[in-house]
Write a structure and sequence with these properties.
alpha/beta; 12 helices; disordered N terminus
């Protein structure tokens, strides 16, 4: 049995990390988190909250496997077998990412015992298919987590409609977390855990946020009524959460690529992965923002 370990009330100030956006662009976020741990020497966050492919990075980071995550991206995620051969659909060639194969690579390296024992609460967002509501699985909710249970939650959060079938957990079907919850809603959810600062990593540039056009394109491809229902609820909740977000804006450090990443269109060539990593590293060191945040936190934290 693995014991719960919490870091609540350990520090006068706490921070969290939200990681949104998946696929192979997660290399951008992985490199930022590597810099947080190894270059800026940040203490562990109170929470890590992620959806879609970001859950892979956050799980490895909570297990202190930043370096292993980078190596996996460069060595395994750049393999052409992870993306299906393009298939002609409605006049366009469509590629699909092989979610199960990606999770299998994670299975090989994830130190599950360290993840569960970490003082950081790792939170995975998935979308309930029937209700369209977001659901959150977290590593501090249970006295024990089975390794396979956690990997199933990661798969559910990454189950993009049209790329992967719904994933059943305890009798409930789930699909990709990004379908049921927007970035604004993820941020508002993160602040509900009583944190002082939030680092937000979004793999999408400002021009390609997971907006209505992107979602409608996916929805028209899969023709999934559950998807459309979740999409409708997502936009309704986003309006409310964007208003609530204004109260936290001064306490958010936001990172996103200045231009679209080369991994768009499921391009996972070695060059594209390396370029995402390079962009993430450069973004993390821009303007000295993280040094200032670290100085504010370290004055109140021991690590």
């Amino acid at each position: 049995m693995l014991n719960e370990k919490h870091n609540e009330d350990c520090y006068e100030k706490n921070y969290g990390i939200v990681h949104s956006g998946g696929a192979f662009g997660c290399a951008f976020g992985v490199s930022i988190e590597y810099e947080l741990a190894h270059h800026f020497r940040f203490p562990p966050p109170k929470i890590r909250l992620a959806s879609s492919g970001g859950v892979i990075n956050e799980s490895l980071a909570s297990a202190s496997q930043h370096a292993e995550g980078l190596e996996m991206l460069k060595d395994k995620f750049s393999h052409p077998s992870l993306v299906s051969t393009p298939v002609l659909r409605e006049g366009e060639f469509v590629k699909r990412v092989k979610i199960n194969q990606i999770i299998e690579e994670v299975r090989k390296i994830l130190d599950f015992d360290r993840l569960v024992a970490s003082p950081t609460n790792t939170i995975v967002a998935a979308t309930e298919c029937k209700s369209g509501d977001p659901h959150f699985f977290d590593s501090h909710s249970f006295h024990t987590w089975e390794r396979e249970d956690w990997l199933t939650c990661m798969t559910a959060s990454s189950a993009i409609p049209g790329h992967h079938p719904h994933v059943q957990i305890n009798g409930t079907e789930y699909m990709d977390g990004d379908v049921g919850i927007s970035l604004s809603s993820l941020i508002v959810k993160a602040f509900s855990y009583d944190i002082d600062w939030l680092i937000v990593i979004n793999n999408r540039s400002q021009r390609e946020l997971f907006n209505s056009n992107t979602l409608i394109d996916v929805g028209s491809m899969v023709m999934d009524s559950n998807f459309r229902n979740a999409l409708k609820k997502r936009w309704e909740k986003t309006k409310t959460d964007e208003a609530a977000l204004k109260a936290h804006k001064k306490n958010i450090v936001y990172f996103s690529p200045s231009s679209p990443l080369p991994t768009r269109g499921l391009n996972n060539t070695p060059w594209a992965i390396e370029e995402c990593i390079r962009k993430g590293t450069a973004e993390s060191r821009r303007g000295g923002v993280l040094w200032k945040l670290r100085d504010d936190l370290v004055g109140h934290m021991e690590f």
